[in-house]
Amino acid sequence: MTLLVPRNQQGFTACDALIFPHSLGEDVRKILPVPASVGFCFHAPHLREFGVKNSQQIREGERKGNVPFLLDSRLVIPLLSPPDQQVDVVIYDVDSKLLEKMAQEWLVELQETIIQQLSICRQRYIDPGTGLYNQRALSCVATEKLPWKTLFLIATVSRRRTVAGGYQKVSQLASLLQAVIQEPLFYFGQGIFGTISHQRDRKEACRFSRRLISRLKREKLYRIHIGFSSLVGHDSREHSFVECWNALAEAERRGPFSLCDASSLQTLDQHPFALPDSSVVRSLQRKWCGLDRFGLACFSVPKGGRNGWNFTSLLTEGEFCMGVTPHEQIVFFPDLTRKQTTDRVHALAREIKKTCGELPAAGYSNWPTAVEASRLDCIRQCRKALLHGSFYGPDAIVGFDFISVNVSGDYYFDEGDYKKAIKEYRLGLKMQPDDENLLNSLGVALAEVNRHREALVCFSRVLKSWPDNYMALVNKGMSCRYRGQELESVDCFEKALLSPGHSEQMSLELYLQLGRMYCLLEKYEAAVALLKQWQSTKGEPEEFMFFRIMGEAYLGAGRHRDAIRYLQHSLQLYPRNADSLSMLGLLYVLEDEGADVGLGLCDRAIAMDESDVEHMYRRAVALVYLQRYEAALADVRKVVRKRKNHDRAVLLRGEIYDKLGSTLRAQQSFQRVLTIDNAGEERKKKARIYLKKS
Fold first, then answer.
1. How far apart, in whole angstroms, are the C-alpha atoms of residue 349 and residue 351?
2. Residue 258 pLDDT > 80, yes or no?
3. Which of 180, 200, 602, 606 has CB 3.0 to 4.6 Å from 585, enough for a Cys bridge?
């Protein structure tokens, strides 16, 4: 039997030498008997450029295991790091003759001393509760040239009401983040984590943030906020840290599960839907004052600046033109209807092409609009139409409509501003009440802010007119699951698997969610078949939840050997997952693989997550198998005290009383099983059999 244990997080790593090399180097210099310079040589390909000069010679130098050696007047001391973290201490600027006189035995002793000292030094930069880097380590990032380009701050809020429960949750999240994020991690206290990433692109950072929020939602967190900021292009990295904290605060204002890019806060005036300069707005206000109707158009000029295009000569009497940016101008059309504005914008665009040689892009709108909007909103509508037109090409001319609102809502959604996205989608539905895209988008945005009841209304409206809409089925299934409507959730997920869109958008998340629901409803064989279907089509994913659910399904189906194999793999990916630990512990006991080891795993699971009674229930089952009935009874009582309708625990309590010869108490427990509304039919059947016997 192979017992899987967590990785040792206290050993020296290559990241330590990258993040705080000056402190480490200073500690090494104090050990050396002579003055010297100290640097590091990294062996990982993506880190090689950050080591001392001529590191390639050191990596390719002749080595005899991991013992120190001399190379071109430099002393190289390999650190006993994991292969993917291999790093050497390089000591130079020392008299080469002195280095040659150093005995090999003394160098080995020096190597051991340096390794011990570096391990001690790193503790100054480690949070003792989580084993992650602390805020002092993050401050070192500001002074180093490093491979990481983006800083993320992750704020989590759980529903744990006790100090011990909150501490347990933080430890669980720290372990989970280590499993899903292969980058340096930091902990700042109060449930706030941080990481630095190689990602440069804003879209990649947004996708990463949304995936992480989705993953953390599985941990039943009350609120999750992510703010991120680029570490590139700032005068000082401290400034980018301040920006990131501001972005985190903005994400908190946006809703319970939100994100924010710090750069969007620094360029509010450059937002695609922002009002132009106040002087432009005042000029337009003077023009439309007293008018019952008017048209506006925003022309985007790809070539030339404000002075490169002369619109004035092309305008008719009463029309007015003002530059907004070097490549954008607004044209005012007094007293025109929607159709007249459309015709005039197209005609003006053709005249511009004749005069300047190129057709500009344009977005236009009218006031009053079909929905209630102010005159100032008309300016924003032109800009939304301009963004809408960008999907059709560089010279598209588009009038503001419900699709423009869908595009602007998607823009806010991608920014993580779900409240504004909801406002946009609702506006679009006023213009086009039954549009499936708007309804689906509104439902998703509502679900992101935990308004699942309203989201279900949106998804149901889509499915009423389009019953096999893949995204609506998946989204409705997710909202049903969050609201505890298990059967409806399963029905939606199963229909999604059969819908035409499934083959194009085949998602692991759908399989995981449906697999979890099957296990919850005790349809274990169905869960195994479902996940094997993914396995045969896409292969085994490196997602611990896949192996955990597969292990639970095999356990429920009575196929214990398969369950052990999958749960062991799950723990390799996420060593501190309490569910995997308690299930594996139970299986070790049931398969006679070692009672002490199995109970020890159950104990660890309970210590990590006391709020989940399933771990204690599994230990009780293991104790019953070992005929330790009194200890099992104590566990079952605790389970029932926390969840009085836990039908499996109530049935087990009756069985234990029966074993102990307490017939009356056993009968009371079996009677209680029959009165629990959601008790499984198999357990009710067992309870009736026991009652007949007695």
1. 5
2. yes
3. 602
